[in-house]
């Protein structure tokens, strides 16, 4: 199996009868999903997206990606949250953190995900004097971070190549029919791709939102979708052996036992952005009504030298979920060193991946002894197929887990609070009555 949930280290913390006891609730969550009767049921378009996606748009995405790769040195993707995290996560998982430096041809950079002038100036510097294209991703077209970056980059592009040529290098992923960005794209003649109405941002990576940047980076998106489709067939079936549901059940059993934090971990640095994608997926889906596990992440063995002490002996309010990548993209043979000045010859004559695995196994045993539950998600490798498979695994698990928790896993009402305050403090029209109140609080 490409992806499997491994419970062999959970026996000190969860008994088999506890899985049996929660199973009727898992079944009820499954029925809510399939019958579309649960809260947030108008955002279930992701469930069968890997099979039912728009094939005509998919072909247009592939064609646009080929054009970008042929006529551009740089693609800048402007988006925030689900409009960039999934795409960047897939690109770095499959091609590596340093893919832009190591590969010839198109460089793919992401912006519009902060309001930092330093970060945007760095992107501008990477684009100046180069042939660049822009993929702006926003359903409304008014998202502050993304729209601000796009405004600046569009002006730079028009100054460098002229308005007519610039319009051939801008690709908008937005609402099908309405919104500021859709209107602007239609008026300027930009190619447009659709943010589906029934797919929330954190579930959108396998729609045009993620697929265009992923394809432009040179990844086979047909392979990515096939992995997700195969996972869909497997994890859409109600069974005690459904690993996505069993992972959801384990999370909820531990939550009910007082665990408050889940740390997603991998021993592959290329997985770091997948960690970030997971944090948005589960954080936005479950963190409401004063409930939910706090999603955290680490990359080991790196973070064992910073967080290892706390995990080993700190507050017992957490558990770890390790994404175990069984085969690395590349391996390295360790040769014996004459003189053994570093004392590491005991590691010689084997592949470095063996050392990495033993570090993982030793850490799992130490943390288990320290009272930290260990969940394992085994993944064959980080090919496009298996990353697609893993994405769907997390989708199903998250949806089920949210219903087990008793929340709507497809909305995010809390994110509007900071926006309202920010707009009032910046003097946006319509927020005047709130401005004075907030400024008084800040004095």
Largest sheet: 5 strands, mixed
- Silhouette: globular
In total, the number of strands is 12
**Percentage of β-strand residues:** 5-15%
Strand order of the largest sheet: 1-12-9-7-8
One letter per element, helices H and strands E, the order comes to EHHHEHHEHEHHEHEHHHEHEHEEEHEHHH
Tell me the helix content: 40-55%
Q: Structural class of the secondary structure composition?
A: alpha/beta
Low-confidence stretches: none
The whole-number mean of residue pLDDT values reads: 96
Radius of gyration: 23 Å
Number of helices: 18
Distance between the termini: 59 Å
Keywords: Cytoplasm, Gluconeogenesis, Glycolysis, Isomerase
Pfam families: PGI
Protein name: Glucose-6-phosphate isomerase
Function: Catalyzes the reversible isomerization of glucose-6-phosphate to fructose-6-phosphate.
Structural overview:
The structure is a single chain. This protein is α/β, with parallel strands linked by helices and 443 residues long. It has helices spanning 16-35, 49-52, 55-71, 85-95, 99-102, 117-127, 144-161, 163-166, 180-188, 208-216, 221-235, 243-256, 272-286, 308-313, 352-369, 384-405, 416-426, 432-442; strands at 3-6, 74-78, 107-111, 132-137, 170-174, 192-194, 261-266, 294-299, 318-325, 333-334, 350-351, 374-379. Strands 1-12-9-7-8 form a 5-stranded mixed sheet. The protein has a 5-stranded parallel sheet with strand order 3-2-4-5-6, sandwiched between helices. It has a two-stranded antiparallel sheet with strand order 10-11. The radius of gyration is 23 Å and the shape is globular. It comes from Candidatus Faecalibacterium intestinigallinarum. Pfam families: PGI. GO terms for molecular function: carbohydrate derivative binding; glucose-6-phosphate isomerase activity; monosaccharide binding.
């Amino acid at each position: 199996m490409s992806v499997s949930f491994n419970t062999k280290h959970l026996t000190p913390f969860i008994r088999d009868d506890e899985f049996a006891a929660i199973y009727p609730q898992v079944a009820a969550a499954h029925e809510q999903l399939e019958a579309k009767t649960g809260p947030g049921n108008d955002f279930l378009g992701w469930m069968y997206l890997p099979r039912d996606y728009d094939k005509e748009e998919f072909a247009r995405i592939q064609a646009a990606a080929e054009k970008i790769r042929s006529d551009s040195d740089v693609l800048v993707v402007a988006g925030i949250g689900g409009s960039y995290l999934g795409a960047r996560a897939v690109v770095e998982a499959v091609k590596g953190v340093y893919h832009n430096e190591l590969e010839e041809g198109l460089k793919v950079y992401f912006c519009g995900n902060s309001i930092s002038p330093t970060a945007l100036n760095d992107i501008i510097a990477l684009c100046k004097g180069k042939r660049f294209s822009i993929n702006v991703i926003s359903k409304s077209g008014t998202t502050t971070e993304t729209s601000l970056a796009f405004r600046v980059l569009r002006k730079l592009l028009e100054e460098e190549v002229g308005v007519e040529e610039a319009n051939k290098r801008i690709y908008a992923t937005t609402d099908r029919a309405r919104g500021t960005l859709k209107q602007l794209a239609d008026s300027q003649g930009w190619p447009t791709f659709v943010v589906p109405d029934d797919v929330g941002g954190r579930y959108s990576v396998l729609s045009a939102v993620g697929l265009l940047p992923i394809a432009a980076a040179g990844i086979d998106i047909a392979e990515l979708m096939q992995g997700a489709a195969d996972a869909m067939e497997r994890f859409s079936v109600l069974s005690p052996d459904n690993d996505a549901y069993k992972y959801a059940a384990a999370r909820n059993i531990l939550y009910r036992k007082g665990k408050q934090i889940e740390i997603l971990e991998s021993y592959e640095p290329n997985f770091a952005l997948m960690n970030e994608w997971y944090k948005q997926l589960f954080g936005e889906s479950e963190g409401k009504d004063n409930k939910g596990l706090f999603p955290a992440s680490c990359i080991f063995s790196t973070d064992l030298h910073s967080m290892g002490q706390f995990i080993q002996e700190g507050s017992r309010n957490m558990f770890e979920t390790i994404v175990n990548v069984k085969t690395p993209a590349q391996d390295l043979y360790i040769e014996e060193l004459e003189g053994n000045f570093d004392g590491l010859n005991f590691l010689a004559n084997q592949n470095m991946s063996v050392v990495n695995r033993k570090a993982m196994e030793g850490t799992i045993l130490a943390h288990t002894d320290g009272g930290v539950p260990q969940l394992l998600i085994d993944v064959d490798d980080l090919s496009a197929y298996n990353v697609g498979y893993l994405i769907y695994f997390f989708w199903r698990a998250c949806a089920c887990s949210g219903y087990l928790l008793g929340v709507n896993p497809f909305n995010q009402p809390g994110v509007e609070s900071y926006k309202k305050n920010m707009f009032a403090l910046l003097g946006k029209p319509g927020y005047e009555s709130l401005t004075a109140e907030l400024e008084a609080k800040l004095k």
